[in-house]
Amino acid sequence: MTSVIGRSRTALTAVALAVVVGGAAIAGGLGNGAAPASAEATDDDPQIQYLVVIFQENVSFDHYFATYPVALNPPDEPPFTARPRTPRVRNLLTAGLLAPNNPNTAQPFRLGRTQATTCDQDHDYTPEQAAEDNGKMDRFVESTGVGSRPPTSPCVDYGLGPSLVMGYFDGNTVTALWNYAQRFALNDNFFGTTFGPSTPGALNLIAGQTHGASPATLGTEVVDGSVIGDPQPSHDDCSTRETVAMSGPNVGDLLNAKGVTWGWFQGGFADCTLSHTGADGHLKLDYIPHHEPFQYYSSTANPHHLPPASLATIGHTDQANHQYDLTDFWRAADAGNLPAVSFLKARGFQDGHAAYSSPLLEQQFLVETLIKLQQLPEWRRMAVVITYDDSDGWYDHVPGPIVNHSRTTADGAICSGAAPSLGSAQGRCGYGPRLPLLVISPFARSNFVDHTLSDHSSILRFIEDNWTLGRIGPESFDQLAGSLANMLDFDHPRDDTLLLDPATGEGPNEGDD
User: What is the pTM (predicted TM-score) of this model?
Assistant: First the structure.
């Protein structure tokens, strides 16, 4: 099936800015100075035929990009030097909210490479709303900050307790992601569709919808039929605690109706007893059921984790029902049978989630995956999206607009001021926290920062539009979603690749483009 993305484009108006930090000038602005996309396009333009969505865990935008593109560069960590004309990013550095100017009760601080392992913060639906404090963004320590509390919840907080929530990494630790942002496209205005942890983020990615859960009330996991926590999927033999099932369509149903090949590929899916030692030194299961959104829907679930009937059926409907182990993705890729739409989920210890994973373990997965993808023949017609399911509660200074309100007992003042705009369903307040999003592709603009307002369902909408699938339905966030198209330039496709070191995130000196 032929894709349609690339047949129309919208250019941003550039506003040139410069900021001086530590004596070094960083050129750029709210519009990069990049050449605008052509207003006219033809059906002969290159088009995306393969989309790979790498869906990682629990990172706010400022947690990884607070000072981008300025890194401290201590002598014992991989160095990072920004390319000339790196555009300005909306972060703590440019907002002037680094120490001592931050309104929170603890100041933001840099976490070094030796501090990559940290406690997991509170990232539940209600505490995240409280942290934003009606848009003042000043209650993170009190609302989502978590410190080590032995023996019930021991973790690494470096003696900082709840103040750890204000920590951020720079390009000496998340080196690969900063290098990818230098060569490809980054969005600094991308938000979780709703507040809450992993499962709402995953459901919004594939359906723009967290309503329709059964049972309709389940403690702190489901409120008024909407998922706000992390219940496990009912249609999954590997689920071990409270479960829910979801009703309604998801993007898998739309892809099937159009005959487009697709799959969700998750580490450990083939054997959910397998585990690896995590960043915290404890064993962590490779497969995490509540990170697999298609297992909540009977139409797209593979409850018994059956393997594909054959290599040739990967991406097609068979006994696996489009739900696979991550190894099946590479088997299909090596055989020239890459599905048109692929969602990749790392094994637990490499998914980036604080406590059991880390930026360094995540980096190894991301870099190794992108090295392989860039060497496939399909790469020249591929786009890779990297983003995260939620913020983990980590501090970010930008409040998302509340485009859909809610008045449940779980909702705070920031959400409850008006009735929901997307139908009558409650418990879907959003947008939630700001998250990183990168697009890596021969069509991605180089060293570009996009400021288009977007959210998890923007990825869903990209799939819907690229393969002319139509929309999910009247209550899905996809009808509001901003476009990712401005991160792409179909008039100037590139033939370069960026093959980084998985351990350090470093790559070749790119020079001035």
Answer: 0.92
Task: Name the region of 133 (left: φ>0; alpha: ψ -120 to 50; beta: rest).
Answer: left
Q: What is the rounded CA–CA span in Å between residue 392 and residue 454? A: 19
Tokens describing residue 438: 């990168």
CA distances, 202 to each of 292, 368, 461 (Å): 7, 23, 14
Task: Write down the number of H helices and E strands in the chain.
Answer: 10, 21
| 1 pLDDT above the threshold of 70 | no
Distance CA 364, CA 386 (A): 14
Q: What's the rounded Cα separation, in Å, for the pair 482 and 311?
A: 36
Which CATH architecture is the domain 50-487 placed in? Answer: 3-Layer(aba) Sandwich (3.40)
Domain ranges of the chain: 50-487
Residues in Cβ contact with 250 at an 8 Å cutoff, skipping those fewer than 6 apart: 206, 207, 293, 294, 297, 299, 300, 472
Write out pLDDT tens, residues 25-59: 333 333 333 333 332 334 444 489 999 999 999 99
| Residue matched to tokens 């919208």 | 10
